[in-house]
């Protein structure tokens, strides 16, 4: 029976090749998009699920309460030792500290090769908490001895050209000779670790003293602390006990800490602590569902529209003894055949566009994942669900046709049913497309607003160049002078970090006007020399710039600092004593600068101070002439390399660094545009099929209208007006939905664009134009033909 159903289904589909092709292509696009989204979601959902006892692994994090709550994926350096020794909750506790851009000198064939790598300094128990085995499948990774390191297989191949590196050495930062004691298997991409070199924690004191010491005085985002808890621990009880620690170790701090335990499974999906917002995954899952829904709507619309022309076939089948259920399953088998071809084509499309997805998100998703049993199960589920949903309603309609009326040719379109349902489905299809287009426009507008709005400083044509730590003042001044003499360089400043680059932010406590206690709020540190304001074009609103100095005696603050203090004007700040970083910074406020964005638009502008301090400088910023960029960069690189022959020269443009803060949004915007385009394409395929059917049905009517004097415009309007009415209804339904969704998304931005009515008007008009083009193509073919031909059409 099933074989007979499929054979007949195949014959019927071949009779209507155009409609079959439209259905297959529409479903294939829906299937292909869903497959890509499935791979994308599976990738993110598989993060760090391969560790033994992963349900007992936690990261220690901090909620900081000053004038507002901040969230840090870290704890003070002393926390790990205290939690390990003073409490009995954990089997293992370990810290891991990231240091960026460290120089590794490697001897190879009598030549020294230099590599710039981000490295981890890890405590001994880190590899006992997590499962990152050695290449020989041994889990006994040892880094207890100083000057030792382990490296991943790919890292060894990159740096040494071989994995046979046990006992080999490298020189770290032109200072410490480190020996390789183990080779790790390549770390899975689906884990929180990103670097490939792990060095003994004992060496950290030489490169980052604050994180190496047992201090409760502050937090650095470079340090993370993990624990493998003993079985059956009550997390809320532990967190309640940890409330004692700030009282014991930070009793006078205005910045109140609360230490929390974050499950390993939550790390990748908690945006408060730097993870991915899970809402994004839901959004793309829903988009995949939308695409499949639109494809199913196309199928149902075209199938129900054709019911009238298949009425005689159904009448004959009923007369010959077919029951309703036979006709229902016959039509369902046709749907299954179409879906099967579509899903095979969809797999091909997914494989074809997988490299583009990988390139966009810098992933390494492989088509081999399609051989996974979970994916095969997903595919079968989608195939059965789509076949049943797409085929059920048309099958029910056809099985209800009265055979007597069908054989006598007295059926009309109302007898076959589905007209109202078709309109509802077309409205739903248009509404989905309008929602996606409006959302894409608003997301694009917000990102453009964030990147191109005045940030309070100049980011164009500014080159950032790193300099070694603890640089001698004489050598730094000499380098700055030589760089300033380069013809293409307009301004040069040494600084701790540029404005607008969140990765260089450093918050600390502040005391104003010799008050007895620190303020309730913190302040951001922006250390720079006397050229800082000119280089970044940050205007003063009161007072003057500080004079040239190597240590801090004079400071600048921004307007926000005065606002936080409740002062009426910036002038009130001038001449007042200023103290920050626990008394390490002391000076007099001599100027107030205009507020500037020191982080992304998702965050409030914070109080900032700017002051000179040579031993804190980490970069040189150069304002260059964009007309001679390449030559200028070459000369900058030459001077820098002359000054620091033992290091690797790199430069970054500030505007690119600022734009990187919106890289995630840019990627998702690109994906949104692609899926919106696909939704419109699938919708157009369905419209084309419907118009092809309706024009064929009304060919004689078109001929009569032409004989009676109708022109092409009148005929085009005849077919367009009904669809335009449906688009307007869809727009009315989609607008509040899209507005609400985008309003919720924009809540994440402190500084945001407005949602204007014309976003939705553009979306509605865009759908109308696309519909008009789709209708016009097929209608014009008939409208421009001879009316004699049209009148002869049966």
From TrEMBL:
<feature type="domain" description="ABC3 transporter permease C-terminal">
    <location>
        <begin position="286"/>
        <end position="401"/>
    </location>
</feature>
<protein>
    <submittedName>
        <fullName>Macrolide export ATP-binding/permease protein MacB</fullName>
    </submittedName>
</protein>
<keyword id="KW-0067">ATP-binding</keyword>
<feature type="transmembrane region" description="Helical">
    <location>
        <begin position="375"/>
        <end position="403"/>
    </location>
</feature>
<keyword id="KW-1003">Cell membrane</keyword>
<feature type="domain" description="ABC3 transporter permease C-terminal">
    <location>
        <begin position="674"/>
        <end position="783"/>
    </location>
</feature>
<feature type="transmembrane region" description="Helical">
    <location>
        <begin position="327"/>
        <end position="355"/>
    </location>
</feature>
<keyword id="KW-0547">Nucleotide-binding</keyword>
<feature type="domain" description="MacB-like periplasmic core">
    <location>
        <begin position="431"/>
        <end position="615"/>
    </location>
</feature>
<keyword id="KW-1133">Transmembrane helix</keyword>
<keyword id="KW-0812">Transmembrane</keyword>
<feature type="transmembrane region" description="Helical">
    <location>
        <begin position="674"/>
        <end position="695"/>
    </location>
</feature>
<dbReference type="InterPro" id="IPR003838">
    <property type="entry name" value="ABC3_permease_C"/>
</dbReference>
<dbReference type="Pfam" id="PF02687">
    <property type="entry name" value="FtsX"/>
</dbReference>
<feature type="transmembrane region" description="Helical">
    <location>
        <begin position="716"/>
        <end position="742"/>
    </location>
</feature>
<dbReference type="GO" id="GO:0005886">
    <property type="term" value="C:plasma membrane"/>
</dbReference>
<feature type="transmembrane region" description="Helical">
    <location>
        <begin position="21"/>
        <end position="41"/>
    </location>
</feature>
<dbReference type="GO" id="GO:0005524">
    <property type="term" value="F:ATP binding"/>
</dbReference>
<feature type="transmembrane region" description="Helical">
    <location>
        <begin position="279"/>
        <end position="302"/>
    </location>
</feature>
<dbReference type="InterPro" id="IPR025857">
    <property type="entry name" value="MacB_PCD"/>
</dbReference>
<dbReference type="GO" id="GO:0022857">
    <property type="term" value="F:transmembrane transporter activity"/>
</dbReference>
<feature type="domain" description="MacB-like periplasmic core">
    <location>
        <begin position="20"/>
        <end position="240"/>
    </location>
</feature>
<feature type="transmembrane region" description="Helical">
    <location>
        <begin position="424"/>
        <end position="443"/>
    </location>
</feature>
<feature type="transmembrane region" description="Helical">
    <location>
        <begin position="757"/>
        <end position="777"/>
    </location>
</feature>
<dbReference type="InterPro" id="IPR050250">
    <property type="entry name" value="Macrolide_Exporter_MacB"/>
</dbReference>
<keyword id="KW-0472">Membrane</keyword>
<dbReference type="Pfam" id="PF12704">
    <property type="entry name" value="MacB_PCD"/>
</dbReference>
